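Hello,

Following up on my earlier ticket. Below are the two sequence lines again, exactly as submitted.
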Amino acid sequence: MPLLTIATFLPVVGALVLMVLPDRTARTVHGLSIGVTGLTFLLTLAIWAGGIVPGSFAQVEELAWIPTIGAAYRLGVDGLSLPLVLLTSLLFFLSAIYSARLKARAATFVVLMLMLETASLGAFMALDALLFYVFFEVSLVGMYFMIAGWGHEDRRRAALMFFLYTLLGSLPLLLAILGLYLSSGTFDMRVWIDTPPLSGLAAMLALVAMLFTFAIKIPSFPVHTWLPAAHVQAPTVGSVILAGVMLKFGTYGLVRFALQMTPEAFTKAGVVILAFGVISAIYGAFAALAQSDLKKMVAYTSVNHMGYIVMGVAVAALTMDPEIRAVALDGATLQMVSHGLVTGALFFLVGMLQDRAHSREMADFGGLLGRVPWLGWAFILSAFASLGLPGLAHFPAEFQIFLATLQTQPWAVVAILAIVVTAGLYLRSIAQVFLGAVNEKWAAMPDLDRGEKWVIFPLLALTVLIGVAPGVLIDIIHTTMQSLSF
Amino acid sequence: MGRDLSFLIPELTLATAAMLMLVAEMLRRPGSALALGLVGLTAATALTIPVLHADTTVFGGTYRIDMLSGWAKLILLPGTALALLLARAELAGRDREGTVYSLLCLVTLGALMLSGSGDTMLLVLGVLLTGLGSFALVSFPRDDAATEAGMKYLVFGSVTGAVMIYGLSFWFGGVGSTLYSDLGRLDGQPLVATAGLLAVIVGLGYKASLVPFHFWAPDAYDGAPVSVAAYLSVITKIAAIFALAQALRDLPVNTGWPMVIALLAAATMTLGYVTALVQTSVVRLLAYSSVAQAGYFLLGIVALGVSPLALPAILVFGAAYVAMNIGAFAVVMVAGRHLDDFEGLGRRRPVIGLAMVVFLLSLTGIPPLFGFVGKAYLFGAAIEAGFLWLAVIAILNSVLALAVYLRIIMPMYGQVDRPADTAAIAQPLALAIGIAFIVTLLMGAFVGVLPG
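Thanks for your patience. The regenerated structure is below:
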């Protein structure tokens, strides 16, 4: 059974059903959306059970598309994409549950969300570069309409900026893909990975184009400026999908395209890429420290966390030792998942707080822990995870990245400074919002209801699980990473 | 003779239909004229399929029956049928309604001649036939705006046509023949080759509305009925591009024509979109956007003879462009000509709104829509021909394009007080939008049936 195809297109089929459904009350709409995304999640679990193989892609599905130019519909998974696929389907499932409270134009919102899920799953599973590009771009359209339609005060400007910025970002990738195609005669990514078709200057140009694309998506300093605007204005579900899933397109592409398809050029440019990673990590932390808006703060910590991933990938390219390379890539991939879980939870929590208070300013709050203990403790746990506390999701990932960095390019370990800053800013925000003098304005604030708990608890449980037993995921990731040949 | 004519059955079918349509109009039966036109176009399309894979010439090499002219028929004939539907929705019941239908078919006949031309004289005939019919179509409403638009179009067309004929005489002088296939003899005569090249660019550039010969387009589209504007922005433009491809295929590359075309392409795309960015009339905005789209076609032209992707790129993008541009104009007929008319359209008419979003995103080149596939082919062809810089400019312009089209999309989903629109849309118009929508949305996935 073509599980990958079914999982990819089930959401969009659900969206089509929704469009022709005569009864489009919020209740049926959200029931359908939860059912479809839940089923998709189960399907991805089945894909997980199907397993992967070292050194290649597993569960490959192929279908002719444009045979004359060697483009085909090709899907498959490996240790890099499978964890991201699981993360994606989980976050969309939880987003569907969370958005069940949405009443304004619910049907359209759900259609966009389901379209985004298909685009995201497809992007991670595509083994054909043209197909990847298709999914990659469709996600922009969905996110544009989500921000423009359901965002906050300044949503139109933010949505426009997001769309233009990221379209400008993604088009160089198309050039790189065409360059790789013209020198190989196929769009099959497996061929490009096994025998990188470009070399010398052409490879370097292709790499620069791809780095431009993925740096914007990740986002890495200095092209991160679209992120705070988009995040702050996006609706909560939009922020969760954007941070949890769509930013991963950037880091996924960094490994899958930049590293695997132009390995020589990547190694040559490795130190520069590493430097950008280090700067992003430090800059993101300091920029987050300067924020008074809770959502913007979380958005900037994404720049910081994604910076570590860039470092891990760069170190993997620079090292000669295959063992260290595997450690660095294991850490980078695990960091993608951890960031999705933890930042997803943080954005949900900030959204829940905003639903109640209609404010994101940290200074407006105070002493909320006594008033809303569930929300408070969930935030505190996620914040501790985000700052890299051992026993929680980010620690094993960042530990491996720093370990590999220390052995390859010791100077880059300065990025560890950022962890100190992150710790400071999270402790400060916890103190301002949840501890200290009680602000009487929020005396009537209700705690998490049942639906909200259903959204948050799975994320918290997985955060702890990956913190204590990262082996669950690292085993899969490692299978692929240790057999990478370049 | 019999063999030659047998290859021209689609053209002959269309010509016969156009004549019969005139008779129907004389009998004051515009409905029959429309039916005849649709039947004729369908029949001509169907009759093209048996000769699609032929690669030959007829009438002493002057008329080419090859991949380009074959697919041109499959693109232009259905496109004309869509335009007929649009015209019916806009002009039903007006005086001289049937003449519009027969003129549309006659202009398309000229367009087919252009895309099959293998000879400079046939090129001139094609330019005249498309030109004369188009002038009449633009000034059809007989009001001041339409008359002014028609006049501008006519004067511009006459001057550029004259320049073209003058310049073509250089090629004739240099080669001693009017056949394109003899143009190879121009090797070593750079001045003669350049003079003729410039003439062809002037004549066809005007028809394809390339910068700097595009000034007539916004005025003509604005003055003409929207359905005629839709027609002119697709059929005659694509025919001119195809004619350019036929002529330049045989011109020696060392005369430097690819660089000239590349510079024109860059100027056309950029100027078209920059000007579109400040328009407040949607018709003018789409007019400038169609100027810019002509620049994208040139990416395929520069790669002719170097990249095997070049011809498929022009054809695929041509097919996509017909569907999405006619679709966008058809939505303008529903919504209104001004940008303000689109305020809240997506809320008032959700299906039409969705269709417009798809047309505009396809014009931008967003996958998986049809327009994206065309653009991907074009970029690939240009890169393979060594014009990486041109591909980069085209890509930057795609971002500009998005900004242009979002100016229409954004207000469509804004808050409005206007009540939902329930007035029924004319049936032919709904049919045209439906066909264009399905083609734009789904052909990207089935592009394998197109040449490559």
